[in-house]
Design a protein that fits this description.
The complex is a heterotetramer of chains A (about 500), B (about 325), C (about 575) and D (about 350).
Chain A (H helix, E strand, L loop, with lengths): L2 H14 L5 H19 L3 H28 L2 H35 L4 H27 L9 H18 L8 H28 L3 H12 L1 H19 L35 H37 L1 H16 L2 H9 L10 H28 L2 H8 L4 H37 L10 H10 L2 H4 L2 H29 L7
Helix pairs in contact in A: 1-2, 4-5, 4-7, 5-6, 6-7, 6-10, 7-8, 7-10, 8-18, 9-10, 9-18, 10-11, 10-13, 10-15, 10-16, 10-18, 11-13, 12-13, 13-15, 14-15, 15-16, 15-18, 16-18
Chain B lengths: L1 H30 L18 H8 L6 H13 L5 E2 L4 E2 H36 L4 H15 L2 H18 L21 H39 L2 H9 L3 H39 L4 H10 L3 H29 L1 H5 L1
Chain D lengths: L1 E14 L2 E14 L3 E5 L6 H8 L7 E10 L7 H9 L12 H7 L4 E4 L3 H4 L6 H12 L5 H15 L15 H13 L5 E5 L7 H18 L2 E6 L2 H7 L2 E6 L2 E7 H6 L4 H8 L48 E4 L2 E4 L1 H7 L1
The chains are: A mainly alpha (about 500), B mainly alpha (about 325), C alpha+beta (about 575), D alpha/beta (about 350).
Chain lengths: ~500, ~325, ~575, ~350
């Protein structure tokens, strides 16, 4: 803006007011000069303008949000609220982890440099992950960022997993990060629809209606989601809604049936089954979520790389996948689980890692197939033709399109991981320190629950496993219908 | 001939895969800190020098690559090494258990295949009906429970409580044979083996049949929307003719590819089932060998099991070549 | 479908009624004459490794082989040696030459008569081939054997061994037939068709399923009265329990108390409780400060509620183990050693006295003289749930006396390697939870030597898991050597008493509990079970003694079935004719 | 002679989101030897009309009204006709036939050439066998060897080398597959052939070849055809009569030349303007603007009125009736008023 512009502006104003005298004009000119000096040159105006624009934008967003929340049906409303709530929960878990666990380890660290560095990395990863989660919450309201959700979500999961794996030496503490991961995952499912929904504000509602209705019209998908949310909430609230700690022993009441004191009875240590169940549920869900998402993430990375690069890289990767694929999974898993160098200590995360080693080829092959067919599509060609870099094509075109399939696979994978954890625990290769549903079943078996009639030891964990896997299966089926329209009932 | 070339290609690929898998297993087992002679060291009354002499005797002092070539040479001669724990060649130990596993797996495999495909076609063709809804629910609920838990329930219910409740029929609890079956006639012996097979097989087969039909159902639903089904309808074919002449074979193609994979899963299931039902198969042997640190036996059992899986895969691929003309020229 | 002829119906009813009457009449009231016949079903937890008695290494194999093979002498349920193949033994004045008189009329399972040459063959084999894993240490101290005549053999020791040494380590060696073993490579022979002279012949072996034995009808002692014995391999005790209640097994061990209570409702099932020569200990690595302080170890033991460990982690089976690491019964037990009754106050004050106070921070964890927290990692075998349970109980007790414990469950292999049990000399652990099995502290005076002697194998510096050192250890080693040199039982006892006092005071191991067992057995079919304080009903003596309560009848239902078939066939034929 | 007459056909899809009126009150008359072109944007109900004519509408679609008259009585035996007459149903209305009776007509008297030759052939059967299958169904008693000869014949006729009959679909080129489909439709000498965008997926050269072949065949066999396409150039090549559909209704119907040269309905004009003409004078291409309506709640009155350049107040209120013009009709208020 120049001097003349300002004066002109004032002159324009004049036209609408009474005619002014020359003095006034002079004063105006002086004011304009001053303004130019103090207002424009100092950048104050720029700042205020910027603030103004932002304020306007925020108002606009709030208005849009309002429109959006109340115009779209109530179900989406609940969905949005849940998304934000879960993400906030995830962020607070991460921050909690940083503040109460990772930071103290770093600051109090009397140990080796290794521990120090690990703790520091842990803090960094936690904070980074928290930052991305916050970023996503902001991104919900910022239009340009929406299309990047898949990328952001993947980065997020990677960061949280990194934090989790680094936190392993202090396994009990890093449960926070695990829960953050769990919440995060659920919210991605929610957000997948929410984002489409937000886009619909701009376009028509068709796309959103399509996916979300396909999902929610499916009664099973709805039931699955409800069960899962209930289970996760129970697991997360675990210790605070029970009267006992998981390792509390009520030695006066051993092998008692359900009663007022112990609503699901006790085992041979007087552990309260209900408490142990909630505790186990958490670990089992964590194994499922960590193993499932890690497995599919690895599979996606390899699959997309393989499909995108092609040539001998593709051949080698896929031949290797084939080799892993022909090994029978369960025997291979306990082969790996029994390798002492890998498992000085058996920890549930190790089981997750073994699961990933054994099952990545499944997702890699599927994702590769999808990516290959996408690669042939015109929009990839046109993006390339218009000079997009490989990175851009992969992150902006390939990944978002692979994303729904990925989600389906993650869900299937999680379901399978929970079952495999139970298998390994049953065969005596589980994590003996952390309660898991599989371990509970194995312990029940050790206490001859079926023969002695201690049904409360064996049925709750079995039903819990069933409910968990069932909910994953239902959600997976609903997602399947989105990915594969031919499965839909018309 | 495209077909023969295809089969040859598959065969070579299977062999290469097997070779790599075997090599992997060998090295996994030889870089770990385990030493086969450990199995003697838990014993108070054994002389100190024994592990050394054993080590010498079985060439465990040789460098790893040399051991590897010895291993390969022996493998080509069908020799999987020597089980230190059992004091017998690994081949012989596995040979004792393999028939039972083959019996369990083989019958499960055949029943799964036939029943699964039929049931899958039925429910897919009656999509949306009550049969279909029941099927979807049954599939999901049954497979939501861990297999071993179902096995435990079966044992408790059909083996024990049925007896307690004075039911006319209850199933045997242990092993694959009655210890006194030597007194029986041949027919009775066969009956005895089948009677012992019934419960483990049922648990395995229910899950297998449901899984296969689930897969078949999905494929058939996909195929049903293909254009050539429409074409067939326009030709005037009846729904049943369409199903069997056009839908079935196309839906079967992916199912056949998954046969190989399903063998792997089946073996995993059979390990659990063998363990729950005390069934004397190779899976149980592998598990016990792992717990007893009988490394050569573990290696051998795994090589055999992986071989079975690969064989299943190979058969599936060859079958695929026969059914789908497209792969022959691809 | 089939109309039964009235005549047939009537005759059938008569036959049925008659057969029922017959079956109701008790055939005999426990006659003097033993009743022969019957099949005994016993369980076994896992398959055996091999039937080669010289290379086998598991208790399962020993159990199976003990059906087939006999030794000169067998320890009975009261741990008294009883003659089996031999009828008598005697030593000369020097105590170096022992002569055994063999029974006559012993026959191998394949019909070949048993001779003194078989005994000589077995002994010489063990004497000359020192690569045999199952070779007893005592063969290193033997000069030679002499066959005096067909019924007398003697052995010439290079020193005068104690009675228990000869009996346990020498005379209980199984004797193998020369005509089978002289032509085979002892180390690789699989011995699939094992021929022995024991009470049972191996009739059938189905791997991972069962063993079937037939009675050795020409057995040289009384019995066995059984016709057959089946050893069923039962991996899951739960399945075993089902089998026991449905009559598929006659004996079952390893059931927890509640299941025992459930089972005892059945009048056909009885229980027997016994103890094992197997004790668990807390190994504190004494190579590391502060575990090398005696008072610290004592405080830890005082602070551990060992009876609760027995009650909770071990289902109330077994006993707390004396601090002297010996079984609290038998000839060599010294009851007058220091006892460590659970006493948190004492443990706390002992730690206070040591100067281990919670001075830094108020976290409830004591610090040692260097200001380091008393925080230790306890390594435990992940495979054994009871061990993990025990460790978590210990964790709780230690928290009460200001010691922070983390549990590190690892595979047994790794554990054994890390603590140096396999001779790795790593000793890379702080605390560990392990057990010792089979030192025979109730019957063998050398038990202490095996366990504590610094020059020996298990107590020696090659393994020495807890890293025990110092004067007490030297003293104990001296005492052990003395036991070895003396032949006077009283003196041995006295020396062992001294050792136990020292051990209980210095605590190389912190013994927790002795394992025990409960065995359920059926009493509706067999009678004459023999069992003792350390054995359940499924033992060698029982096998020879038990007999059927009433004679076996040919299965009536078969006859009935045949009869019915005839009726049906006749009926059908007649119908067709009409 | 009228071979096939579709009268006031109504086919609705009953979806959860509402009833989709895919075909609403459509009438077509097909004479012997006539080729009718059916044109319109995608999703306007062309395919549904023809699937209805073959009674191949899948769930949740349903023919809710109208008649489809086709003389199939030669395929019915006397008893069946009597049964229909007893029920006072017109045996010529194929909507009254049972499914089993209908199957005798499909592929035999009315056959269909599908779009997307890529997928319309079953990949696991030989092409010849798939063609032969039609004969096997409709002439169960025929001699297989003779039938196979006929298959080879028809292959030669449609322009495929008869040696390719033993090939699998993936071994044929796109054009050949389309020809094979045509062969499949023609082998039983049907009276009516419905071609559903037969050349859409092919490249221009092959398109021309296939069209030429189709035209020749039509001439040789004196076929009556209904040709569905959204490509007007295809229609101009082969058809004599043209029907323009919009949103489930026929908006203009008449001889090809009339509709092309003197199109009356604004939609037809727009549609023709949206097509470039290679031979004709260069002209500005016009975009119709807007999108086809949602058929669950179509616009009131004339369904084209929201996009119509010549919209009048009445258009949104009253459904235009078919106004007869030269040899055809048009459904537009513009011309109704003129007549008044």
């Amino acid at each position: 803006m120049t001097y003349t512009d300002i004066t002109k502006k004032h002159e324009k104003k004049k036209r609408f007011s009474k005619p002014r005298e020359k003095v006034n004009l002079f004063i105006t000119k002086i004011r304009a000069t001053l303004l130019l000096i103090f207002w424009e040159k100092t950048g104050l105006k720029k700042a205020i303008n910027w603030l103004k624009i932002w304020f306007k934008k925020v108002l606009d967003k709030i208005y849009q949000l309002y429109l959006y929340l109340f115009k779209i049906n109530s179900f989406v409303f609940v969905l949005r609220i849940l998304t934000v709530l879960f993400w906030l929960a995830a962020v607070s878990m991460l921050l909690l982890d940083t503040i109460t666990v990772a930071l103290p380890i770093y600051t109090d660290s009397l140990g080796t440099d290794e521990v120090l560095i690990k703790a520091l990395l842990w803090v960094i990863f936690d904070l980074l992950a928290a930052a991305t989660v916050l970023y996503v919450i902001v991104a919900i309201f910022v239009e340009e960022e929406r299309s990047r959700l898949p990328t952001i979500a993947i980065v997020q999961i990677f960061l949280i997993l990194a934090g989790l794996l680094l936190g392993l030496p202090n396994s009990e503490d890093s449960v926070y990060v695990g829960f953050a991961l769990l919440f995060n995952f659920i919210t991605i499912v929610f957000a997948y629809f929410s984002f489409v929904a937000l886009d619909d504000q701009v376009k028509s509602l068709t796309q959103f209606r399509k996916s979300s209705k396909v999902f929610f019209r499916n009664r099973m998908g709805k039931i699955g989601l409800v069960i899962l949310v209930v289970l996760v909430t129970l697991a997360a609230l675990g210790p605070s809604i029970t009267r006992y700690e998981a390792d509390d022993m009520d030695l006066a009441n051993i092998h008692e049936g359900p009663s007022d004191i112990h609503i699901l009875g006790t085992d041979k240590f007087g552990h309260d089954t209900w408490t142990v169940l909630l505790d186990s549920l958490g670990i089992s869900l964590l194994v499922g979520v960590v193993a499932g998402s890690l497995c599919v993430l690895l599979g996606t990375t390899i699959g997309v790389t393989s499909a995108y690069i092609g040539g001998w890289v593709d051949t080698i990767l896929m031949r290797f996948a084939d080799i892993v694929l022909v090994m029978p999974p369960l025997p291979l898993m306990f082969l790996l689980a029994s390798l002492p160098f890998l498992l000085g200590t058996i920890h549930w995360s190790m089981i997750a890692i073994i699961y990933v080693i054994v099952f990545w080829p499944v997702s890699a092959k599927l994702i590769r197939g999808q990516a290959l067919s996408l690669k042939q599509r015109t929009f990839i060609h046109s993006a390339k033709a218009s000079g997009a870099s490989n990175r851009y094509v992969i992150f902006s075109h390939l990944l978002p399109n692979v994303f729904p399939l990925m989600l389906t696979m993650i869900i299937t994978s999680m379901r399978q991981a929970i079952l495999y954890e139970a298998f390994l625990a049953y065969l005596g290769l589980g994590d003996p320190l952390n309660n898991s549903l599989g371990l509970m079943l194995q312990a029940a078996q050790n206490q001859f629950a079926l023969a002695s009639g201690y049904w409360w030891l064996i049925f709750p964990p079995a039903i819990a496993i069933a409910l968990t896997t069932l909910s994953f299966a239902f959600i997976g089926m609903a997602f399947d219908e989105i990915v594969n329209p031919r499965l839909r009932k018309r | 001939m495209g077909l023969w070339k295809y089969i040859l290609k598959r065969l070579i690929f299977a062999l290469v895969t097997y070779f790599v898998a075997v090599t992997l297993v060998f090295f996994i087992y030889h870089v770990m800190q385990g030493d086969p002679t450990y199995i003697y060291s838990g014993n108070v009354h054994i002389d100190e020098d024994i592990p050394d002499s054993t080590r010498e005797r079985w060439g465990l002092d040789e460098p790893l690559w040399k051991q590897y070539f010895i291993f390969l040479r022996n493998l080509l001669q069908g020799d999987l090494g020597y089980s230190f724990f059992k004091g017998k060649p690994v081949m012989e130990v596995i040979g004792e258990t393999l028939p039972w596993t083959l019996l369990l797996l083989g019958s499960a495999f055949i029943i799964n295949g036939i029943l699964g495909i039929l049931l899958g076609s039925l429910v897919a063709w009656r999509r949306g009906s009550k049969v279909d809804a029941t099927f979807v629910l049954t599939y999901n609920v049954y497979n939501a429970f861990p297999l071993f838990f179902v096995g435990m329930l079966f044992i408790a219910l059909f083996g024990y409580y049925f007896y307690i409740w004075d039911f006319p029929i209850y199933f045997p609890l242990l092993g694959a044979q009655n210890p006194l079956s030597y007194r029986f006639t041949f027919i009775q012996q066969v009956g005895d083996v089948l009677w012992h097979l019934a419960m483990p097989l049922t648990v395995l087969v229910i899950s297998g049949v449901l899984g296969w039909s689930w897969f078949m159902r999905g494929n058939l639903i996909n195929v049903k929307t293909e254009d050539y089904i429409q074409t067939a309808r326009a030709k005037g074919l009846s729904e049943n003719q369409i199903l069997f002449k056009h839908g079935f074979r196309n839906a079967l193609l992916p199912v056949i590819t998954s046969i190989g994979m399903s063998v792997g899963g089946l073996i995993g299931g059979s390990v659990l089932i063998e363990s729950v039902f005390n069934y004397p198969g190779t899976g149980l042997l592998l598990l016990n060998a792992l717990l007893e640190n009988d490394y050569n036996l573990v290696q051998g059992a795994f090589i055999i099991i992986a071989g079975l899986t690969l064989l299943g895969l190979l058969i599936a691929e060859i079958l695929y070549g026969f059914i789908d003309p497209r792969v022959r020229n691809a | 479908m089939i109309k039964l002829n009235r005549k047939i119906l009537v005759s059938m009813t008569i036959v049925l009624a008659f057969s029922m009457m017959v079956s109701l009449v008790p055939t005999s009231i426990m006659a003097q004459e033993p009743i022969y016949g019957g099949t005994l079903y016993t369980p076994m937890g896992s398959d055996i490794d091999t039937l080669n008695l010289f290379t086998q290494g598991t208790t399962y194999s020993s159990y199976i082989l003990s059906h087939i093979y006999d030794s000169l002498v067998q320890y009975d349920v009261d741990n008294v040696p009883q003659p089996v193949i031999c009828s008598a033994w005697e030593d000369d004045v020097t105590g170096e030459i022992w002569t055994f008189t063999l029974r006559e009329g012993i026959v191998w399972h394949d019909g070949t008569p048993f001779t003194a040459d078989d005994v000589m063959f077995t002994w010489n084999l063990l004497l000359n081939d020192d690569t045999i894993p199952r070779r007893s240490w005592i063969f290193d101290w033997i000069d030679g054997f002499t066959k005096i005549d067909e019924t007398h053999v003697s052995v010439d020791f290079s020193y005068a061994p104690g009675f228990s040494d000869v009996m346990i380590d020498f005379a209980t060696q199984w004797i193998v037939p020369e005509h089978i073993w002289d032509s085979v490579d002892v180390l690789t022979f699989t011995n699939d068709a094992a021929i022995g002279c024991g009470p049972f012949k191996l009739a059938e072996y189905e791997p991972a399923q069962f063993f079937r034995f037939e009675a050795h009808t020409e057995y040289h002692l009384d019995g066995p009265y059984l016709a057959e014995k089946v050893v069923q391999i039962v991996r899951e005790t739960e399945a075993g329990y089902y089998a026991l209640s449905t009559g598929g097994l006659d004996v079952l061990g390893g059931a927890p108390p509640d299941l025992v209570d459930v089972a005892m409702v059945d009048p056909a099932i009885e229980k027997h409780e016994w103890l094992q020569d197997y004790w668990m200990y807390l190994g504190l690595n004494q190579r590391i400060y502060p575990m090398n302080i005696k008072e610290f170890r004592q405080a830890v033991l005082y602070g551990t509620n060992r009876s609760e460990i027995v009650d909770v982690a071990r289902y109330g089976r077994g006993l707390t183990c004396p601090a002297s690491c010996s079984l609290p019964y038998g000839d060599y037990y010294n009851p007058d050693v220091k006892e460590y009754d659970f006493n948190v106050a004492l443990a706390n004050s002992m730690l206070d006295d040591l100067g281990f106070l919670d001075s830094i921070g108020d976290d409830g964890i004591r610090e040692d003289a260097n200001g380091t927290d008393l925080a230790f990692e306890i390594m435990v075998s992940a495979e054994a749930q009871e061990s993990v349970d025990t460790a978590s109980l210990v964790q709780g007790y230690m928290a009460d006396i200001g010691i922070d414990i983390t549990i590190k469950p690892v595979l047994f292999d790794v554990l054994w390697h890390e603590v140096g049990g396999d001779g790795s000399q790593l000793y890379d652990y702080e605390w560990c939870l392990l057990g010792w099995v089979g030192f025979w502290s109730d019957i063998h005076p050398n038990w202490a030597s095996w366990l504590f002697n610094a020059n020996g194998n298990w107590g020696g510096d090659g393994k020495n898991i807890p890293g025990w050192s110092g004067d007490p250890r030297a003293d104990v080693t001296d005492l052990c050597e003395q036991i070895f040199l003396t032949n006077d039982e009283d003196e041995k006892k006295d020396l062992l008493n001294q050792i136990q006092v020292i051990v209980a005071e210095d605590l190389p191991y912190l013994p927790l509990n002795i394992l025990g067992g409960v065995t359920l057995y059926r009493v509706d079919e067999f009678d004459g079970w023999v069992m003792g304080s350390t054995t359940g009903p499924d033992n060698w003596e029982s096998w020879l003694n038990i007999q059927l309560l009433e004679p076996e009848s040919s299965p009536g239902f078969l006859a009935l079935g045949a009869f019915l078939t005839v009726v049906v066939v006749v009926g059908l034929v007649r119908k067709r004719r009409r | 002679m009228t071979l096939l007459e579709i009268k006031n056909l109504k086919t609705y899809y009953d979806t959860r989101a509402g009833v989709v009126k895919a075909v609403d009150d459509v009438s077509i008359k097909l004479q012997k030897g006539e080729v009718i072109g059916l044109a319109g944007e995608s999703g306007c109900g062309k395919t549904t009309t023809n699937l209805s004519a073959m009674r191949m509408i899948q769930n949740p679609g349903k023919i809710v009204g109208g008649e489809i008259l086709f003389d199939a009585t030669s395929l019915l035996n006397g008893q069946e006709i009597e049964e229909l007459e007893e029920l006072q149903l017109n045996p010529r209305n194929i909507l009254n036939l049972k499914e089993e009776q209908m199957r005798r007509i499909r592929g035999n008297q009315i056959s269909m050439i599908f779009q997307g030759a890529m997928n319309a052939l079953n990949p696991v059967h030989r092409v010849g066998n798939q063609v032969h299958e039609v004969l096997k169904i409709h002439e169960p008693d025929h001699d297989p060897a003779e039938g196979w000869e006929r298959v080879l014949d028809i292959f030669e006729t449609v322009g495929i080398d008869s040696s390719r009959a033993r090939d699998y679909p993936h071994q044929l080129s796109g054009g050949m597959k389309q020809r094979a489909l045509i062969a499949m439709a023609l082998i039983s000498h049907p009276e009516v052939v419905i071609a559903d965008e037969p050349v859409t997926a092919l490249d221009v050269i092959v398109q021309a070849q296939v069209l030429k072949a189709t035209k020749e065949l039509q001439k040789t066999f004196n076929l009556s055809m209904i040709m569905i396409t959204h490509d007007l150039s295809v229609i101009s090549e082969i058809c004599e009569t043209l029907a323009i559909m919009y949103a489930g209704k026929i908006v203009e119907y008449g001889p090809l030349r009339n509709v092309f040269k003197e199109s009356l309905h604004p939609y037809t004009k727009a549609l023709i303007n949206a097509f470039p003409s290679i031979i004709g004078p260069k002209k500005e291409l016009e975009d119709i603007g807007g999108a086809p309506p949602d058929l669950r709640n179509p616009p009131t009155g004339c369904r084209f009125h929201p996009r119509c350049p010549k919209v009048m107040p009445i258009c949104s209120k009253k459904v235009p009736i078919n106004t007869p013009v030269k040899d055809g009709y048009v459904a537009c208020h513009l011309y109704q008023e003129d007549r008044k």
